[in-house]
């Protein structure tokens, strides 16, 4: 899943930012690249703390929604999308038995083989499910 982050760039080249959907999650760096790397670490640590305390991980909204909501808050910087592997924040994995058509299983396996970020059929199905729940919700 991708979370939008807003990065402000200072005159000295350093950068800092925040995730509008994740209260209190901020990041910084001496360069934009360092700030982006810190953003990945910051959101990961933030979500680990939320789940450790039994709190919900917030769902991301689109950049457009944020811009439309408050035009003045997002001036003088740039947007970035930070990919978050949500698998580790969903809790303990449970084995289930599902039935799918052979052709669909083949398409899933082909997608997994060509995209290692899914790691397995289960990883692909979990990602697709998260995306659909986010879209519908």
From TrEMBL:
Residues 3-128 form the HicB-like antitoxin of toxin-antitoxin system domain. It comes from the Bacteria. InterPro entries: Arc_rbn_hlx_hlx, HicB-like, TA_system_antitoxin, TTHA1013/TTHA0281-like. PANTHER family: ANTITOXIN HICB, UPF0150 PROTEIN SSL0259. This is Type II toxin-antitoxin system HicB family antitoxin. It comes from Serratia aquatilis.
């Amino acid at each position: 899943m991708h979370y939008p982050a807003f990065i402000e760039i200072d005159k000295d080249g350093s950068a800092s930012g925040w995730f509008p959907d994740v209260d209190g999650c901020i990041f910084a760096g001496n360069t934009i690249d360092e700030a982006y790397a810190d953003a990945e670490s910051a959101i990961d640590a933030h979500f680990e703390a939320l789940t450790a305390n039994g709190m919900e991980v917030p769902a991301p909204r689109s950049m457009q929604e944020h811009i439309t909501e408050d035009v003045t808050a997002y001036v003088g910087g740039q947007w970035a999308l930070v990919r978050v592997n949500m698998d580790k924040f969903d809790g303990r994995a449970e084995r289930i038995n599902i039935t799918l058509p052979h052709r669909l299983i083949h398409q899933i396996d082909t997608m997994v083989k060509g995209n290692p970020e899914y790691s397995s059929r289960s990883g692909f199905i979990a990602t697709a499910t998260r995306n659909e729940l986010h879209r519908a919700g």
